[in-house]
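Q: Given only this backbone (348 positions), what sequence would you predict?
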């Protein structure tokens, strides 16, 4: 294993900038280092936490086990079926740089997902999505290390059971697999995806001549305008998922709140997705501060570390928002951010 450190402050390893400690910490730059780290944790019955960019975690307390920073790097290309190019990226490749790499090689599809923080290995975990695209649309397969058996396995797109900000890695296989690399099937010069209204509007002056680079530039510009840079103001992006309501619940809510915005949801007939940001804003939370944590004033879906927030500040603000949205709209908000330990687990 590469160097094993003890009692390490994780503030620089989570985009909320929360100051919690890891009992043990190591950086895995090779498969062997990763395997040795897993063996160390198993031999000492230690809980394990994989971290990429730490941009989708809420570290609620000191971590009593081994934190492994995923630092495997490398990108390869092979010819795929039907003129596609199969691009494999190691789990520790920074996501945005990988998107730029593909674009520079003329490989299209991922440009709508530009500027999402974090690493390639975490992209399948919650099936990252933005501006009309989900990463599942481009994942061919995922190579994983099984923590229990030590086997290296290749999982097809279907085996990953991707859903809205969801996958088998957050469900049935939670904590059982480490993503070593992801293979994407990309096309040269594919037509840009402008299904997201605000993106289409931003590019309307280009007419039919919109390129993947134009989409990339527009997505970056919109994101820079709307979202806080975690290096400046700690945050983990959208804190909650947009709730998906069945036809009946949606009709009830719309009747009570005629201005309720909604989008089509890909699930059962009549299901609608409702913007969590709207519910939170209507419930009066935009800009409000609790301890050092606050609801971002430009985007109510984002909780920010305004002033030396503690994990407890973020947790109690999030819980208060959930209770308030439930009371006002009868809608249960579900966090998108991974709480570590999970919400149901009491802190000792
Ligand atoms: C400003 C901002 C904007 C964001 N915008 C978006 C957005 O538009 N769309 C979106 O979907 N997300 C968004 N996010 C959330 C986040 O960037 C993504 O979820 C990203 O994929 C997380 O990557 P990470 O490497 O930082 O994961 P981490 O936070 O390090 O880890 C997230 C989870 O995955 C696990 N994990 C990480 N790597 C591995 C691995 N190799 N194998 C197994 N498990 C692993 C961790 O244990 C943890 O449970 C945003 C976050 C921020 C701060």
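A: Predicted residues:
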């Amino acid at each position: 294993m590469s160097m094993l450190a003890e009692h390490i402050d994780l503030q620089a390893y989570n985009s909320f900038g929360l100051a919690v400690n890891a009992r043990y910490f190591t950086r895995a730059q090779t498969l062997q280092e990763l395997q040795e780290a897993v063996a160390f944790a198993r031999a000492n019955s230690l809980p394990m936490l994989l971290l990429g960019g730490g941009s989708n975690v809420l570290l609620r307390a000191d971590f009593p086990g081994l934190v492994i920073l995923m630092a495997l790097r490398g990108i390869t290309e092979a010819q795929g079926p039907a003129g596609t190019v199969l691009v494999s990226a190691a789990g520790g490749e920074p996501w945005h740089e990988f998107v730029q790499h593909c674009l520079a090689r003329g490989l299209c599809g991922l440009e709508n997902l530009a500027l999402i923080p974090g690493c390639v290995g975490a992209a399948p975990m919650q099936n990252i999505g933005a501006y009309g695209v989900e990463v599942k649309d481009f994942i061919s397969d995922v190579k994983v290390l099984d923590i229990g058996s030590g086997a290296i396995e290749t999982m097809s797109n279907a085996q990953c059971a991707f859903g809205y900000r969801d996958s088998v890695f957050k469900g049935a296989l939670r904590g059982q697999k480490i993503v070593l690399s992801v293979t994407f099937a990309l096309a040269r010069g594919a037509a840009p995806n402008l299904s997201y209204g605000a993106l289409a509007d931003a590019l309307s002056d280009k007419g039919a001549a919109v390129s993947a680079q134009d989409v990339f530039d527009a997505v970056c510009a919109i994101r820079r305008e709307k979202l806080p840079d975690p290096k400046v103001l700690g945050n983990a992006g959208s804190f909650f998922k947009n709730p998906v309501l069945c036809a009946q619940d949606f009709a009830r809510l719309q009747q009570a709140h005629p201005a309720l915005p909604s989008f089509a949801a890909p699930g059962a007939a009549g299901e609608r997705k409702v913007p969590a940001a709207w519910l939170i804003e209507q419930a009066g939370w935009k800009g409000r501060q609790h301890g050092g944590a606050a609801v971002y004033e430009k985007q109510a879906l984002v909780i920010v570390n305004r002033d030396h927030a503690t994990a407890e500040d973020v947790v109690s603000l999030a819980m208060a928002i959930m209770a308030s949205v439930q009371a006002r709209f009868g809608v249960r908000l579900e966090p998108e951010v991974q709480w570590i330990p999970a919400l149901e687990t009491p802190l000792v």
